[in-house]
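User: Please run a holo structure prediction.
Assistant: Happy to. Please share the sequence and the ligand.
User: Here you go; the ligand is pyridoxal-5'-phosphate.
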Amino acid sequence: MNSIAENLARVQSNIDAAARKAGRKPSDVKLVGVTKTIDIERIRTLLSLGVNCLGENKPQELAEKYTALGAGLEWHLIGHLQTNKVKLIIDKAAMIHSVDSLRLAEEINRRAAAAGRVMDVLAEINIAAEPSKHGVEPGEAVNFVEKLIKMENLHVKGLMCIAPNVDEPEKNRFFFVKMREILIDIKNKYVHNIDTLDLSMGMTNDYEVAVEEGATMVRIGTGIFGSRA
Ligand SMILES: *Cc1c(COP(=O)(O)O)cnc(C)c1O
């Protein structure tokens, strides 16, 4: 098995190459290191290599690792969030990628107001309309974002998706293009309310295709740490 340093270097050079291929700047793509199930020692190794933006899919785990590693990092909640768990991360997460219902958005907005902050959020789109996945249907995306924008303690930063689990990453290109098109629809309608718009898409299996199609954030776990136990 390769070291974390070797894996990270390979991922970063792949991101750079994919960005250049698409005529984009590599610096426009942010790497979110996905640390779910990864122990503190191995996370420290990643931090020492200069990655300080970390993604967790469980609120409890995010809160524990935030406490263990200190507040100087950027923690992103990337997995499904139940409304009763919002309180665990409201003062810890820098961004929530997985806002998948109005009810959840309202709870984040309410808790953020009480905590005296504005939370950066992404609207999760169930881009392939998979029954097993969370997120709003593509056809509902613009309408959903319109509602989120009205919430005072949310800062809507863009869209997120978890593309289908495919054997061949090219199969997801269609869905990444669709995400970009939805983002353009939203920009055309609300550009005055949304400044920089992010597209969080692409994981170990398909991040290069995602970057080629406009991802500004890729969420990578296995590609850095190896397969999870
Ligand atoms: C686990 C996870 C990832 C990272 O997946 P890898 O295939 O290990 O890169 C990305 N996004 C979400 C929402 C995840 O839960």
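The chain has nine helices and eight strands.
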